[in-house]
Design brief:
eight-stranded mixed sheet, 8 strands
Length: 255
C-alpha cells in the first residue's frame, strides 16, 4: 500500500514495511513522485521502505525560494532523510535530471548511502535535451507554456507521456525554469558523467539506446560506465517496464 505523508512541506509517497533501509526515488525534470508509483507498488516493497518525494515546486509540493538548484535540492533531501532517526541506510534512484541530485546527495550522505542507480540520467551536456531548453527563454511562464504544449502534443500518440503531462501542469514555472537553467549551465562547466563515475558508493547506469543521445552513448562506451540496458521501453522504464526495472533495483541493492 502506498501512503501519502507531508514532511517539511513536501509530499512523500511511501511504500513498504517500516525498515531501517530506505530507497529514495528522485523524479526527473518537472516530474513528480507519481512517475515512480508503479515501482512503489512492486514486489520488493516487503524488504525495505520506498520513498518518492515531490521536490519543492513540483507535483504537490509548493515552491520554496532559492531551492531550485541541484545543490539546494540535494541539501533539502538530506535534511529530510537525516530527520528520520530510524533510517540507517539509504539507496538512491535518480531519473533523468533527478540523477544529478542523487549523485550530489550520495556525496553528502557519505557512508549512509548504499549506492546510486541512474535511470537515463545526465552524463553529458546532450542529456539536457528537456531541461536545457530553459536557457532559450527569459520568461519562466513562456518557457513552461511552450514546454507543456510540446509534451501535450507528443502525449496524443504516446500513453506513457500522459502521466508526465499531469505532473508538468502542477509544476511551478519559476522553479522549473531556474532548475532547467541550472542543469544546463552546470553541465557546460563540468562533466556530470565523471561526477557519477567518481562516486565512492556503488553506482549503475540503466538506459536504452533508443532514448539516449549519441554523445552519451559514446561516453558510456569510452568510460566503461557500469551499466545495464533495457529495450522496448520509453525514457520512463519505471512506468512501462516496471517488472524488469524492479528486478534490476532488487539485485543492485540486494533486497
Amino acid at each position: 500500500m502506498v501512503t501519502l505523508q507531508t514532511q517539511n512541506n513536501m509530499l512523500l509517497r511511501i511504500s513498504g514495511r517500516e525498515r531501517s533501509m530506505h530507497i529514495w526515488f528522485i523524479p526527473g525534470f518537472a516530474d513528480s513522485s507519481s512517475a515512480f508509483l508503479p515501482l512503489l507498488q512492486s514486489e520488493f516493497t516487503s524488504k525495505c521502505t520506498l520513498v518518492a518525494p515531490d521536490l519543492p515546486g513540483f507535483g504537490a509540493s509548493p515552491a520554496v525560494h532559492k531551492i531550485w538548484t541541484v545543490n539546494s535540492l540535494a541539501r533539502c533531501l538530506k535534511q529530510l532523510i537525516n530527520e528520520d532517526k530510524s533510517i540507517k541506510t539509504v539507496g538512491l534512484v535518480g531519473h533523468s535530471s533527478g540523477s544529478l541530485i542523487a549523485v550530489k546527495l550520495a556525496r553528502i550522505l557519505g557512508e549512509k548511502c548504499l549506492g546510486v542507480v541512474s535511470i537515463e540520467g545526465n552524463l553529458t551536456r546532450a542529456d539536457a535535451y528537456f531541461s536545457g531548453k530553459a536557457v532559450n527563454y527569459e520568461s519562466p511562464e513562456e518557457f513552461k507554456s511552450v514546454f507543456v504544449n510540446r509534451i501535450i502534443a507528443k502525449a496524443a500518440t504516446d500513453n506513457v507521456l500522459q502521466h508526465y503531462v499531469s505532473s508538468l501542469l502542477q509544476a511551478n514555472a519559476e522553479t522549473m525554469w531556474r532548475f532547467g537553467r541550472n542543469v544546463y549551465n552546470s553541465s557546460r562547466t563540468r562533466s556530470p558523467g565523471l561526477e557519477f563515475l567518481s562516486l565512492p558508493q556503488p553506482h549503475l547506469y540503466y538506459w536504452c539506446k533508443d532514448n539516449t543521445p549519441e554523445d552519451t552513448q559514446a561516453f558510456i562506451e569510452r568510460n566503461s560506465v557500469p551499466q545495464k540496458q533495457f529495450r522496448n521501453a520509453s525514457h520512463w522504464p519505471m512506468v512501462d517496464a516496471t517488472r524488469s526495472t524492479a528486478h534490476i533495483l532488487k539485485n543492485f541493492f540486494k533486497v
